[in-house]
Design goal:
Blueprint: E1 11-17, E2 23-31, E3 50-57, E4 60-61, E5 66-67, E6 72-79, H1 90-104, H2 110-124
Antiparallel strand pairs: 1-2, 1-3, 3-6, 4-5
Helix pairs in contact: 1-2
């Protein structure tokens, strides 16, 4: 479920979310620093532990060995009280809407919703991850 990393200069938006996963209005912007997809934002002041990451840009295409011909936008939801870094990838993107539904409509905690959504998305592809492997750590 991986694709090549976003290229240097791709944009990354970090938006604070409340417990219902609605945006609070606090957002931070940065760019991918290198062609390994690394990004960083040190000066963040958040009240909530939940964030949405949105990465937008060109990525490295492993098949062609060249940058993608078009841009791609991927999302991730993360609890930053549990991690010091988070990745944006295809799995985090696919599970996002399900996590939002499980939190908002089913009343699950963020952690329970993330675990359930990850399992459901992986099951669609008949895949498994090691126990306690968070999709945003891939």
């Amino acid at each position: 479920m991986q694709k090549g990393p976003f290229n240097s200069g791709s944009s990354v938006a970090i938006s604070e979310l409340n417990i219902d996963l609605d945006q609070t209005g606090r957002s931070y912007f940065t760019t991918v620093l290198d062609n390994s997809g690394s990004f960083e934002q040190k000066q963040i002041e958040l009240i909530s532990n939940f964030v949405q990451l949105k990465a937008d840009g060109y990525y490295f295409n492993e098949v062609s060995g060249k940058p993608s011909p078009g841009q791609l936008t991927l999302y991730a939801l993360a609890d930053i009280s549990q991690v010091s870094s988070a990745n944006v990838n295809v799995l985090t993107h696919l599970e996002r809407s399900r996590v939002e539904y499980l939190v908002r409509e089913q009343g699950l905690s963020f952690a329970a919703a993330k675990a359930q959504a990850q399992q459901e998305v992986l099951a669609i592809f008949n895949l498994e991850l090691p126990e306690n492997a968070a999709s945003e750590s891939l």
